[in-house]
Amino acid sequence: MPEGHTVHRLAAALEQAFGGRRVRTSSPQGRFPEAEQLDGSVLLGAEAVGKHLFLALAPAADVPADSPAVRQVHVHLGLYGSWTFAGEPGFADAHAIGAPRLRMGEREEAHGDGGLDWRRLVPRPTVRLRIAGEHGLADLTGPTACEVLDAQGRQAVLDRLGPDPLREDPDGRARRRFVDAVRRSRTTIGALLMNQQVVAGIGNIYRAELLFRARLDPFVPGRELSAGMCEEMWEDLVALMTYGARTGRIVTTQPAHRDIEARIVERSRGTRQNGDEDPSAVPREKSFYVYHRQTLPCRLCGTTVRSADLAGRTVFWCPRCQRVRRRRAGWTREHPATPWALADPAAQVA
Ligand SMILES: [Zn+2]
């Protein structure tokens, strides 16, 4: 499932591609019949909240954002959804965003020069929503939700969501909401981090890696954690997800910890990320401390990384490094500095 940083990148890409312009909308699959009524609307903007995406469409560009004439297309990708972009050079820079796996399946038509004529792309029959503009198109397949909402409907979705670490938080309100929600709960921190009402946008990778970086046992109840520990976790999450939103990749390892297992050949284990094809990116198998590294030795202490089911998804952790169970007093971090340096010169060139 795409995590929140991917949805934020998608919103930015859609806004860049179609923002302020009239678009053609259709549903080749037929399962989003509202596309017909929206056809010819102007895309006022695209917004991400957690893993939810909202596309604001209106009859004209000068319709105020709060007008009842604005329709909100609400999209949640769920486990299998993705967006595929195609268009003129420049437009298609976004084509890898949104799908953990690069989708390249639509090259039925080509120019004489071998290039792609996006205008003649025949949509796959599974395309729920196609948005086409002057310079390119975006196809949505396999979402959990694709529906039209009014302002009240949009607000109802937002009301069910906790704070999103990728949204501005100048007065610290979002952080306080997160800290309070965690500390009120008897539920394990590993389960709380997957609860979108506690924090919006985290998926299974960020959960496992955040807990490792905090040295925190995933099975500790939220109410046993100190406010300071929760605040630092929030700040770390903001740093990690901001990096993810900027680069499209989740990288949580410090450079010094990436090569310590040189004698072990790590297999990819089915995890894919945007940017895998980019030779300057931190390779996937070096990007994580514990995610999908069960049965491999911990990068820091050599103990075998474990996995177990927690809140319906597999959690990964090092039983030796992640022994922090409660109060800040007992919390000593072997490797200081929060947020950890994510700086990787090669990864930040873009
Ligand atoms: Zn360890």
Automatic annotation (TrEMBL):
Task: Set out the biological process GO terms recorded for this chain's protein.
Answer: base-excision repair
Q: Which GO terms describe its molecular function?
A: class I DNA-(apurinic or apyrimidinic site) endonuclease activity; damaged DNA binding; oxidized pyrimidine nucleobase lesion DNA N-glycosylase activity; zinc ion binding
Residue ranges occupied by any Formamidopyrimidine-DNA glycosylase catalytic domain in the UniProt entry: 2-98
Cofactor(s) needed: Zn(2+)
* Catalysed reaction equations from the record: 2'-deoxyribonucleotide-(2'-deoxyribose 5'-phosphate)-2'-deoxyribonucleotide-DNA = a 3'-end 2'-deoxyribonucleotide-(2,3-dehydro-2,3-deoxyribose 5'-phosphate)-DNA + a 5'-end 5'-phospho-2'-deoxyribonucleoside-DNA + H(+)
The record ties this protein, via Gene3D superfamilies, to: 1.10.8.50, MutM-like, N-terminal (3.20.190.10)
User: Top-level EC class, please?
Assistant: lyase
Pfam families (alphabetical):
Fapy_DNA_glyco (PF01149), H2TH (PF06831), zf-FPG_IleRS (PF06827)
FPG-type domain span? 289-323
**InterPro entries given in the database record:** DNA_glyclase_Znf_dom_DNA_BS (IPR015887), FPG_cat (IPR012319), FPG_N (IPR035937), H2TH_FPG (IPR015886), Ribosomal_uS13-like_H2TH (IPR010979), Znf_DNA_glyclase/AP_lyase (IPR000214), Znf_FPG/IleRS (IPR010663)
Q: Which domain of life is it from?
A: Bacteria
Keywords of this protein's UniProt record, alphabetized?
A: DNA damage, DNA repair, DNA-binding, Glycosidase, Hydrolase, Lyase, Metal-binding, Multifunctional enzyme, Zinc, Zinc-finger
User: Its Enzyme Commission number?
Assistant: 4.2.99.18
* Family in the record: Belongs to the FPG family.
Q: Which PANTHER family match?
A: ENDONUCLEASE 8 (PTHR42697), ENDONUCLEASE 8 1 (PTHR42697:SF3)
Listed name of the protein: DNA-(apurinic or apyrimidinic site) lyase
Q: Source species, please?
A: Brachybacterium saurashtrense
